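Protocol step 4 of 5: obtain the predicted structure for the target chain.
Materials: sequence only (see below). No template structures provided, no constraints applied. The aim of this step is simply to have a reference model before the mutagenesis design in step 5. Sequence pasted as it appears in the construct record:
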Amino acid sequence: MAFHQAGGVRYFTFEKLSQSGVTHAVFTRQGGVSAAPYDSLNVGSTVGDEMPSVRQNLQRSFAALGLTPESMFDSWLVHGREVHVAHAPRPADWAKPPKADIVITDHPEVTLFMRYADCVPILLFDPQRKAVALAHAGWRGTVARTSEAAVAALAQHYGSRPQDLIAAIGPCISAARYPVGPEVVAEVQAAFAARAGDLLPRYGEATHFDLQAANQIVLQQAGVENIEVADLCTASNMDHWFSHRGSGGRTGRFGALITLCA
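Step 4 output (structure tokens):
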């Protein structure tokens, strides 16, 4: 795992994905043009930031890796298991992106892109079938096993085998910073059964949820053996990452991308 900087844009990469030659990045909030509270590399267009700033931030993000936003396929995140197969970049004349928390492709001209602010970025690469996936999992997506659905989608569409996949779990809110209420506790207990206790640690009087560990369990149970975990907390490192919880809800979104383009 390493941080890089290009043109003022600071981003994070995973060792195993880099060694496999797949282009990817999880962008920090540094190196953009947006004003506070979206400072500075906000790529979220629905949080209240000025659209010209968001577009320029996207340009800067893609340029940092030698890519163009015209290669982008993004999605409208709905905290579920929906999958969209990207056969080409998203057409510019689409008013809104499709609703999906998982996007997959085997086309090198497509760059998969999503936005985050505490939820879990999940990147997947199949070096045998040459396919990639990008997923988004908040607590709802985690208990719905979104990362498992991403593994299944790669198998269904490209014949990927779970044991061949390289998975990466990006920066997200840590258990220590993520207290949850009884509704979430009940959902976690139903979804993870005997493993739930480990995922619901107590901090004082509050029960917290470990999103990172939960998604690692889901991937392992789906048959994925090669998993790299960033182990970076968005809410504890708000100079690097946007955090919805840490900011009280008014903040930007950081981006993550993966592409087969060398």
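Step 4 remarks: The mean pLDDT is 96. The chain has one domain: 2-259.
Proceed to step 5.
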